[in-house]
């Protein structure tokens, strides 16, 4: 049994997979197994993986899905077939620093931590530049303190920049066929952790393959199910009183803004968005939105809440305003 299992779903990434796999096999830490999940991309991505892996001595296995299942289900299948104490999820169009496994694993063992997170760099494919993502303050955190960082926007919800103890996945799965799957999963994993370590090193490189004007790169799908999951999270993280409830609302507003913005960005007619907008709208309350404009005005972009307030009051108005004005006003990170 290896110390780490790397879960790598592969789907139509023949232009990127070689860089990804080579960054994995060139790790300074060697006690790992690579679990590749072939998600039926019908290109030569898997053949490229096999060609590279035949020249190495690392442990690996390739699992073939019977049909295309998507990122979440492929990750779940990989985790189900893992046996190591720690899991690292990698997206197949990204790459990792050669010392990533060594630094994350050493920190996990030395601090008896369930989760160790590094920082990440975003590579913008459209112009070939890099930008640093969330500059989370390094240190040792309790689950509650790290959840506060997440909900406050001081760290990301991405699973791929974190080494995670496999036992945390015993009762947690990535939701199938839902956009922003990490947003729905990472809070639960953090909540169930005994200790979280944040490193200051930039060890993961995230490839942004689409335009800077979109966070998703395409129209979001299955929004109704996403909202159902978010409502379930609200019952777990957003009920009761105190700071965490407020921070969860802030977290939700940001996610819902991105979801709404991209839904409108990739729709030409209001009729194409009506059902999705109603689903998002069902999560929102006018009184809470108005109150939080005042409460959160110093800690987040109030434009996000105003945008959602227009959605709640009048969906067609938001659609028209987005097409004429808002799509030029908002700069997405």
Detailed description of the structure:
Mean pLDDT is 92; it is low at 211-216. 43% of the residues lie in helices and 18% in strands. It folds into two domains: 4-208, Alpha-Beta Complex (Spore Coat Polysaccharide Biosynthesis Protein SpsA, Chain A), CATH 3.90.550; 223-329. It is globular. Strands 1, 2, 3, 4, 5, 6, 7, 8, 9 and 10 form a ten-stranded mixed beta sheet that branches. Strand 1, helix 1 (17-25) and strand 2 (32-38) form a beta-alpha-beta unit. It has twelve helices and ten strands. With 333 residues, the chain is α/β, with parallel strands linked by helices.
Brief digest:
The chain is of the alpha/beta class and 333 residues long.
Class of secondary structure makeup? alpha/beta
The biggest beta sheet, please?
10 strands, mixed
CATH superfamily membership of the largest domain: Spore Coat Polysaccharide Biosynthesis Protein SpsA, Chain A
> What average pLDDT do the residues reach?
92
Proportion of helical residues? 40-55%
Task: Tally the structural domains.
Answer: 2
| CATH level-two architecture of the largest domain | Alpha-Beta Complex
What is the highest CATH level, the class of the largest domain?
A: Alpha Beta
Q: Let me know the number of strands.
A: 10
Proportion in β-strands: 15-25%
DSSP summary: helix tally: 12
């Amino acid at each position: 049994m290896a110390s780490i299992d790397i879960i790598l779903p592969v789907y139509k990434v023949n232009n990127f997979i070689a860089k990804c796999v080579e960054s994995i096999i060139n790790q300074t830490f060697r006690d790992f197994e690579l679990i590749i999940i072939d998600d039926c991309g019908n290109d030569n991505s898997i053949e490229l993986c096999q060609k590279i892996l035949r020249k190495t001595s690392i442990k690996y296995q390739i699992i073939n899905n019977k049909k295309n299942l998507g990122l979440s289900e492929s990750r779940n299948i990989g985790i189900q077939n893992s046996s190591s104490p720690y899991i690292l999820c990698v997206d197949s169009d990204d790459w990792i620093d050669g010392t990533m496994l060594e630094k994350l694993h050493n920190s996990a063992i030395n601090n008896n931590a369930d989760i160790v997170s590094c920082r990440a760099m975003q590579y913008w494919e459209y112009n070939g530049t890099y930008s640093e993502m969330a500059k989370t303050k390094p240190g040792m955190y309790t689950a509650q303190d790290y959840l506060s960082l997440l909900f406050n926007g001081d760290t990301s919800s991405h699973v791929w920049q974190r080494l995670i103890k496999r036992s945390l996945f015993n009762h947690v799965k990535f939701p199938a066929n839902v956009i922003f799957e990490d947003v729905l999963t990472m809070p639960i994993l953090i909540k169930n952790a005994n200790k979280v370590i944040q490193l200051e090193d930039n060890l993961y490189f995230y490839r942004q393959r689409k335009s800077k004007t979109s966070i998703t790169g395409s129209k979001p799908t299955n929004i109704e199910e996403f909202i159902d999951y978010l409502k379930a999270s609200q019952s777990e993280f957003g009920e009761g009183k105190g700071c965490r409830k407020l921070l969860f609302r802030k977290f939700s507003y940001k996610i819902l803004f991105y979801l709404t913005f991209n839904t409108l960005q990739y729709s030409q007619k209001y009729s194409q968005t009506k059902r999705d907008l109603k689903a998002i709208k069902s999560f929102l309350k006018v009184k809470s939105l108005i109150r939080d404009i005042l409460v959160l005005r110093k800690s987040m972009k109030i434009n996000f809440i105003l945008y959602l307030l227009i959605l709640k009051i009048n969906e067609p108005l938001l659609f028209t305003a987005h097409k004429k004005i808002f799509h030029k006003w908002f700069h997405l990170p």
